Amino acid sequence: MPDGNQPKLIIFSQHGMSDTNRTMNYLAHQVAPLHSHIVAPNLGFIQTHFEIESLILKVERSAAQAFELYSDIPARIIATSLGGVIWVEVLSRHQEWWSKIESLVLLGSPIGGADLARIIDPFGWGIGIAKHLGKNRRPLAEQITAVVPTLVVAGNIGSDGLVTTESTKLKHAHFVCLDGVSHPDLRFDPKVVGAIQEFWSKTRKPLPPPKATLTLELIEHFRSVPGITDANSQDFCHAKTVFSFADGTSICTWKNIFGVDHVFITNGNGECEYAGFVGWVDSAGMKKAISQATKSY
């Protein structure tokens, strides 16, 4: 390394649930430029199934140590699944670090809330890590992505097998969906390596907010419903239209065999743009939101 082993870049690489740092450490070495200092904390395979706060603090400490050691060196972050959720929490607590971050790469991170977690813990009673993964952190994350250039990588279309594509999407973030890549494969698939390298190949800026449309307004409206979680758009085939607007945008609903209410927003071409569901305790709020939408928009 130049200048007495002084690195030029810090790479934070964070694993997710039911994992250790081995694979994410390897991914970091695959994509890291020369003379990079790699930080890949091992949170513990078992520990990732319980409380999130101790995990946040461990990542926070490792980042603080790296920034103290190399105070004048920029950093890039790669995080998969739960690791991305943790980094959103860490960065939301340390806005002073944002100027140091050249890019944030989130691999299959359910920032909008993991539907599987809500299924495991539908009432938010606190069943292990599920109570944390089911939380919608989009408001926190989109403050960060408005400032820090961000790449979101999702596997497959609709869902990667564990996390819905919709729950990974963020305003201001560049988005890549890799068909045929499962959730676990996001840690090492060559397509992911290529996507990260391509994103890092040139200077990036946060994307401007999308142009306002009725579809986007409706999505924001339903995302504000208490207890709503992004759902799998593949279930849209079961839905029935309950209201259509003049431009063809429609609100569709479906109740699954467990009595869980789903809502879908389609564009003027009948394509599903958003899918969400609420647990039983929030069904009344969903019905109210549908009524408000048909009257207000």
Radius of gyration, taken over Cα atoms and rounded to an integer in Å: 20 Å
Query: What's the CATH architecture name of the largest domain?
Result: 3-Layer(aba) Sandwich
Strand content range: 15-25%
CATH-level-4 superfamily name of the largest domain: Alpha/Beta hydrolase fold, catalytic domain
Task: Give the CATH topology of the largest domain.
Answer: Rossmann fold
Number of strands: 11
Major sheet size, sense and barrel closure: 6 strands, parallel
What oligomeric state best describes the polypeptide chains here? single chain
Report how far apart the termini are. Answer: 59 Å
Order of strands across the widest beta sheet?
2-1-3-4-5-6
Structural class based on helices, strands and sheet pairing: alpha/beta
Per the principal axes of the C-alpha atoms, what is the gross shape?
elongated
pLDDT averaged over residues: 90
Domain module tally: 2
How many helix segments? 11
Percent of residues in helices:
25-40%
| CATH class call of the largest domain | Alpha Beta
What is the H/E string?
HEHEHEHEHHHEHEHHEEEEEH
Overview of this protein structure:
It is a single chain. With 297 residues, this protein is α/β, with parallel strands linked by helices. The chain folds into two domains: 2-200, Rossmann fold (3-Layer(aba) Sandwich); 214-296, no CATH class. It has helices at 2-5, 22-31, 53-69, 82-93, 115-120, 130-133, 138-145, 165-168, 190-200, 214-223, 283-296; strands at 9-14, 36-39, 75-80, 101-107, 150-155, 174-178, 229-230, 240-244, 250-255, 261-266, 272-278. It has a six-stranded parallel β-sheet, with helices on both faces. A five-stranded antiparallel β-sheet has the order 7-11-10-9-8, with helices on one face. α3 (53-69) packs across α4 (82-93) and α4 (82-93) crosses α7. It starts with a helix and ends with a helix.
